[in-house]
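Let's practice the habit of predicting before peeking. Look at the sequence and jot down your guess about where helices and strands might fall. Then scroll down.
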Amino acid sequence: MRMATTSGIRLAFIVAAGVGLMCGSAATQAKPWRHALLNAKADAGILLMAAKRGFDEKQGLTVDLLQVKDDQIGLKALIAGEVDSFEGGPQGVFAAAARGADVKIIGCHWIVLPHGIYVRDEIKKVEDLKGKSIAVSAPNSMPDMLARFALAKFGITPDQVKLAVIGGDHERYQALAGGVVEAAVVSNEYQPDMAKDLHLLVAGRDAVPNFLRVCMVTSGKVLAERADDAAHFLAAEMEGLRFALTHKAETVALTQEIIHARPDDKRAEFVYDDAVAHHAVDADLPIPADKLDWMQQQLIKAGRLKEPIPLAKVTAPEIREKALKLAGK
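Done guessing? Here is the structure:
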């Protein structure tokens, strides 16, 4: 497994098949797979378990990982053929499919949002956000849509607030802590050490329980050429997630290693416990039609989608079914 980072669509992969990853005849049989995902955070041990602890190699793949700032970059990389798959919110998939892109959801693992709208202490209720600035990310990204959907639930329209596009979680949190904005959509990983004058106003899982955080996405082109490899990749993810969800100490330690956390940093443990307590991660990577349909309806209401897209057009359940068999279930 090799990891790279980028802040834009220009990507560079250095493929060294088998070097330092496998030995003997297994190395010659391993196939490269390029996968994009969001920058590593306090959930990294869960999301990267398959790649970091040999589950990909077990399925006959050498995986090059590309870390990206937001979903839109990963989606663009997939459409451009720069990666074979990416993991991110499904809302971008619908938007891309509506414009003719051949993209396919093959499974969703983080099915409950760990994010929420965090605010300064003077804001006591959602209605107090009227006229205030809320830090989100790029249009159609999860933070952007979470803010819009959560506000709509309380009868607030986007024109009644100021949605400010401000980078990733870290940048949005810094903007909130520094007083640049009055609210921000950020991950719950900031709760353990959150400044005393900040608090959680509304949890994403409560405001929008049907919002899917992360799905695995590939393209019709990749599936036409490498359907078996896609199934093996998904099977490795399933096995890695199963291990992560049943081995807390190892998973927290892996997160600490990946993000170079201090020994007393409590974020990884907090995120892990929260994910397990709320059944946020499903290692079988379902393709929940009800939640996907709900998300489409919200996109239509928000004017981001003209009409629903048949799920059969943007999903490939046959890959998941094969992956379940490969993963032993």
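How did you do? The mean pLDDT is 90.
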